[in-house]
Amino acid sequence: MIILDLRNRYANTGFMEILGKIINKLFFVLTLGLFILSVYDIGYTSPVDMETLYNNSIFKIFFPITSFLYLVRSVLFTDHRMSWKVFITNTLLGVLLILLFLFRVILGGNVFFYPVFHNFTLFHFFAFALFILEVSRLKIEAAMRYFNPAQMFMVSFALIILSGTFLLLMPQSTISPISFTDAIFTSTSAVCVTGLTVVDTATRFTPLGRLIILGLIQVGGIGVMTITSFFGFFFKETSSFREQIMLRDYLSEDSFNGILKTLIKVILIVFSIEIVGAGLIFYSMYLHGMGASYDNIRFAVFHSVSAFCNAGFSTMTDNLYDIQIRDNYFMHYTIANLIVFGGIGFPVFLNLYSYIKDQIVRLWEYFRHHKPFIHRVGMITFNTKIVLITTFLLLLFGTVMFYFLEAGSTQSGINTQGRIAMSYFLSVTPRTAGFNTVNMEMLTKPALLIIIFLMWVGASPVSTGGGIKTSTFTIAFLNVVRIIRGKNHIETMQREIHEYSVNKAFSIIMVSLFLIATGTFVIYLMDGEKGLLRIVFECFSAFGTVGLSINLTSFLTAGSKWVLIALMFMGRMGMMTLLLSMSPSAKKSVAYRYPKENIIIT
Question: Is residue 235 one of the residues assigned to a domain?
């Protein structure tokens, strides 16, 4: 009570505001220091020498000061009248940190710094958590003065890629050192959820290195802004109007009121599907006679996250073509469906969630209170219908084509059940996933061309995948049908598609083909002896953030790897993000239009 009265007494003066700013800056420096020192201890200190951190007097000073400062800031400088949730969560976390410090003093530092996961200790986890929460509290208002939302999106991914690069370069991350080019290639491939690898994930990276890759995949799949905004809502008192607009556009939300609920739903949906997927993969390994070991749990979790995020990374040297799981079709179906779910897109998931929830509520009212069941029209949005129909038709097309094209090649001697599973998986994985259950070099040329087409189309908007997106392809296809039918507008499912969407689709297609063609040309100049088809396949795979390769990636020169890095980054950002990032922030309206002219097109 004394502390609260003290705060209220000086609340109306500028003293508390100035002191609050000083404490915020000091706390950020302390958490950044703890984060850097923790990373150094984990990545550069041998796991057997875990007393290094405890014996370092810097940590003995940093942690108690940081804990006390966090509690003081939570009590004195959080306006509970503005946001009770922020006041409560910050205060509880501050009390927890003080209790942990007392726990360390009473039981000794050896207990507090005992490794609980690899060479991660309880101290490391809280040091990382505090830094992430502090980053989430930062206001991006100043940055938005210099960057538009599209540029902010690109900068956030670039920073994560660079951070992942330096983490992978740590001595404890790899079995043997890797070059900076290979590290940034791997980091880009993970953050952009591609799956192309220049070094073997299974043999070159330690458990810590694979954990870093898994974290980069998860952050890249969900999105940096989604994660930081989620924590920011609980640990930041206010957010500016411009921040809310940017987050609303990023989540494709119609109103500001639903942003927090949308964030919570996205996080819950992602982790729920990944947990279920990991359980099914683990169960498939148990049924396949691989036991129920801790290694299988790690395998299941890694591949569930990698599949849902459409990353394509595997801890097996031969990916899913490994002899142990090559014919585990239950696992193949599980991973394929995770890829489909991840590639559908969050707006579709949220729309289906609202529809299913409404149907369950109405059925409950019908059986419980005998209210008449009324089916609400229009709950499934036009975008959801387009995405689901296009996804289904592309999967069906790919499955049927691969079933017949690969009958005498990769599917030779396989029974019908196995051929259907292989065809379905081969139809799914080009949709920006990158797992392979067959030897890619044995695929027929027609099958490779179909895979290139599917990689180019990619997943759906606001999903974990890349490519030009299913909606873009559908609009382009319907535009061709419109011209053939002689109509002035695109009409489908009793709806007319706006000309702005048609123009965007055309721009995306043109820019994507230009970037892929440019990348192919540059790589051919440096590694032309590798074969044009293999280079074209690699560039489509990189741009579509797929990860499939005809055994080429690791044999490319450093220059070609950097071209693929650029293609992966631009493919993950999306064509509209790239175009918007190049446009000026301020839009000037003009009060005139030039005379229209027709151009001869035959």
Answer: no
User: DSSP string of 24-81?
Assistant: HHHHHHHHHHHHHHHHHHHHHS-TT-THHHHH-HHHHHHHHHHHHHHHHHHHHS--TT
Q: Of 137, 169, 186, which marks where a domain is finished?
A: 137
Instruction: With H, G, I as helix, E, B as strand and everything else as coil, classify residue 13.
Output: coil
Select from 137, 158, 177 the last residue of a domain: 137
Instruction: Please report which helix (H) or strand (E) contains residue 492, including its range.
Output: strand 491-492
Selection from 542, 547, 575 nearest residue 561 by Cα: 542
Q: Please name the residues in contact with 23: beta carbons below 8 A apart, sequence gap of 6 or more.
A: 69, 72, 73, 77
pLDDT at residue 354, as a whole number: 83
Question: Phi, psi (5° rounding) for residue 388?
Answer: -65, -45
Contact indicator for 83, 237 with CB cutoff of 8 Å: yes
Residue 455 lies in a domain: yes
pLDDT digits (tens, 9 = 90+) for 564-594: 999 999 888 877 666 666 665 545 556 777 8
Give a yes or no: residue 422 inside a domain. Answer: yes
Q: How far apart are CA 301 and CA 296, in angstroms?
A: 9
239 sits in the region (left: phi over 0; alpha: psi -120 to 50; else beta) called beta
User: Does residue 541 contact residue 548 with C-beta atoms inside 8 Å?
Assistant: yes
Amino acid 2: pLDDT: 47
Phi, psi angles (nearest 5°) of residue 263: -60, -45
Is it the case that residue 103 has pLDDT exceeding 90? no
Check whether 119 has a pLDDT greater than 80: no
Q: Which residues contact 377 (CB under 8 A, 6 or more apart)?
A: none
CA distances for 324 relative to 143, 301, 328, 437, angstroms: 50, 18, 8, 11
Q: Strands, E, within 74-233: which ranges?
A: 115-117, 120-121
d(Cα 58, Cα 45) in Å, to the nearest integer? 16
Phi, psi (degrees; rounded to nearest 5) at 115: -65, 130
pLDDT digits (tens, 9 = 90+) for 164-223: 999 999 988 899 889 999 999 999 999 888 888 898 888 899 888 998 999 899 888 877
Distance between CA atoms of 518 and 396, rounded to whole angstroms?
32
Model pTM?
A: 0.84
Q: Structural domain of residue 37, as residue ranges?
A: 1-137
Q: Residue 496: enclosing H or E segment and its boundaries?
A: strand 495-496
Count: domains in the chain: 2
